[in-house]
Specification:
Length: 605
């Protein structure tokens, strides 16, 4: 473990930045970043997280500074080690008594960032920042409460929602395109045509509601509102769309009220509904007295088959629960409330889908006398069985709870959680990144001499997501050959090595039914001498001039891909690196394991 203490200057002052970076077995590409303002740090915390196309992390929240109080803050952290690329902050100028906070963040196709939240004087606030530098490109601010949700259209326009207001802002300059008032938006989603779904509650009577607005002009297309058994406070909290454009919304309905010492106390229960996207008609509804969904985080997701996944707490407890719910009729498919070894789930506010997994951010508590620690785990979408588990190292301290409710999964399957971690006088913003790793992946590459023109390469990949083409299909390497691609995204060096069709044979009957073999012992076709393709595994051995040198002091990370027809099998080695050494004057070596899985690596950097 290495500790790096830095002072990072944003647009309005210094922050203390503590980076804890570790490459430990089973925790590939792992790092933690903890940072806070110059003040007491009582409310330093992250509220939202997103990732850029290259894997860098955008985190939004608040920082407590000695001169300006609680400030709206956004930071970009490097994917490789969590170091701050830039920090941008915004303050109303009213001094230490004012409060500003970023509550939501989104990234457009150009990797520019839109963050939304509130400033003291003009609480409904959104700002667009250049992804490369953090420089402000435009801002939108008005009265009403703080903005709590933001999403981006395909055209790059921003849709921002909050108490009593939903706005669409032009992406290039922030000019208001349209505004809809009179509805509280807690979460937003856009369909394929750009129409907007806002879930929250109606005004002035707070009823659970789902509102659809035309993306072009903001005109209301339909509104579905639901009043609970008692008229007090009902609200939808989370929204997701399926491939057909139908909408899932979950929140709570008030079911009972009582007065205790002059205060009205409400008991609410979870309400989950699926509505037809075209007209808002109810497709099914379920009321769950045993489940509580979080007010923040990302507790709802829908897979390609239209089934829903929901995380939360068992009613009246701090016990976490993850559910898979049939998109067809709303019935339970499976539920999980504990992991192998007697580890209980203390809370589960964050959920995301990655490949065939359901990734959850949660408190993990081993049997007594084990202490609870925030961590991540993945469940198979089909069965709910545990796929992997990672501890984060973020723990509660005294009466200050640790929490990483904001969750995102990047393009390489890396998991990022953001929230707060306790310190002696309060809390710090805490961000943890873990790259999903497969122990069956490994690479061994060594150059024979300082000419860098003669090297040995062994690449092995084992992954249940690897499937190769059936005989005589478009991906049959006997007809179309294959190509091995190698790239270093940091140096920009890349190479492609052909494995022509003439070297391939099929295994099984008919030939190719059990996979394919490539042999070129004398290097007639090129440097790759042997390859094996099987469902679930791949092997490639090369010897000679690979057209790629290890002459830098270190590679940092390497990506390997084998293309056979339209099929791509890919592994990114940047986690557990056993050997990474080279120089212009000596032979280089690179050995790595725990690569990210092929299914998550859609393209070379």
């Amino acid at each position: 473990m290495r500790y790096i203490l830095r002072r990072v200057y944003g647009s309005f002052g210094p922050f203390l930045f503590l980076l804890l970076a570790a490459n430990a077995p089973g925790r590939a590409n792992a790092w933690q970043a903890h940072f806070g303002g110059s003040g007491p740090g009582v409310l330093d915390q992250a509220r939202a997280v997103a990732t850029l196309s290259g894997g860098d992390v955008i985190v939004a929240g608040s920082l407590d500074n000695a001169d300006t109080g609680l400030d709206f803050a956004v930071a970009r952290l490097a994917a490789t080690d969590g170091k701050a690329v830039w920090v941008a902050g915004f303050d109303s100028g009213l001094g230490v008594t004012d409060n500003e906070w970023a509550l939501a963040v989104a990234v457009d196709a150009a990797d520019d960032v839109v963050a939304a939240g509130g400033l003291e004087e003009l609480p409904f606030f959104a700002v667009k920042l250049a992804g490369a530098s953090g420089q402000e490109l435009w801002r939108y601010e008005t009265a009403n409460g703080a903005a709590v949700a933001v999403t981006m259209s395909v055209a790059g326009d921003a849709v921002v929602g909050g108490p009593g207001r939903i706005v669409k802002l032009r992406g290039n300059d922030g000019v208001l395109i349209w505004e809809h008032t009179g509805h509280v938006a807690n979460a937003l989603a856009l369909d394929a045509s750009g129409d907007v779904y806002a879930v929250g509650h109606t005004l002035p009577t707070p009823d659970f509601s789902v509102l659809k607005l035309a993306g072009g002009d903001g005109a209301p297309l339909w509104l579905r509102s639901i009043d609970g058994p008692v008229s007090h406070f009902d609200a939808a909290r989370h929204v997701a769309l399926d491939a057909d454009g139908d909408v899932f919304a979950v929140g709570e309905l008030a079911v009972e009220t009582e007065i205790f010492n002059g205060t009205v106390i409400t008991r609410s229960e979870t309400h989950f509904v699926k509505l037809a996207g075209d007209d808002g008609s109810e497709m099914w509804t379920r009321h769950d007295a045993a489940l509580r969904t979080p007010t923040g985080g990302s507790a709802l997701a829908v897979d390609a088959a239209g089934d829903a996944y929901l995380s939360g707490l068992r009613a009246g407890t701090l016990d976490g629960l993850v559910l898979k719910i049939s998109g067809g009729d709303g019935s339970d498919v499976w539920s999980v409330d504990s992991l192998a070894g007697g580890v209980s789930i203390d809370a589960a506010p964050g959920l995301a889908l990655s490949g065939g997994d359901v990734v959850v951010s949660a408190g993990l508590a081993p049997p007594p006398p084990g202490a609870a620690e925030w961590g991540f785990f993945a469940l198979a979408q089909g069965s709910g069985g545990e796929r992997w588990r990672r501890a984060s190292g973020v723990k509660s301290f005294g009466f200050v709870a640790a929490s990483l409710p904001a969750l995102a999964v990047d393009s390489l399957g890396g998991v990022v959680g953001a929230g707060s971690a306790p310190r002696a006088r309060g809390s710090d913003v805490s961000v943890v990144r873990l790259a999903r790793a497969l122990r069956g992946h490994k690479v061994r590459w060594s150059e024979r001499d300082a000419s860098h023109a003669d090297a040995d390469l062994l690449l092995k990949m084992r992954d249940g997501a690897l499937f190769f083409a059936s005989p005589d299909s478009g991906g049959d390497p006997r007809a179309h050959g294959a190509v091995l691609e190698i790239a270093n995204s940091m140096s920009g060096e890349a190479t492609s090595i052909a494995l022509p069709a003439g070297g391939w044979t099929g295994r099984g009957a008919p030939a190719g039914a059990k996979g394919y073999d490539y042999k070129d012992r004398n290097g007639v076709y090129g440097p790759c001498r042997r390859a094996q393709l099987r469902d679930g595994q791949l092997l490639v051995q090369c010897r000679g001039d690979l057209g790629f040198t290890l002459d830098e002091p270190a590679q940092g990370a390497l990506t390997f891909a084998l293309r056979a027809g339209g099929q791509l099998s890919c592994a990114h080695f940047g986690g557990l690196i056993a050997v990474d050494a080279g120089d212009t004057a000596q032979a280089g070596r690179f050995q790595g394991a725990l690569a990210t899985p092929s299914a998550a690596c859609a393209a070379l950097p």
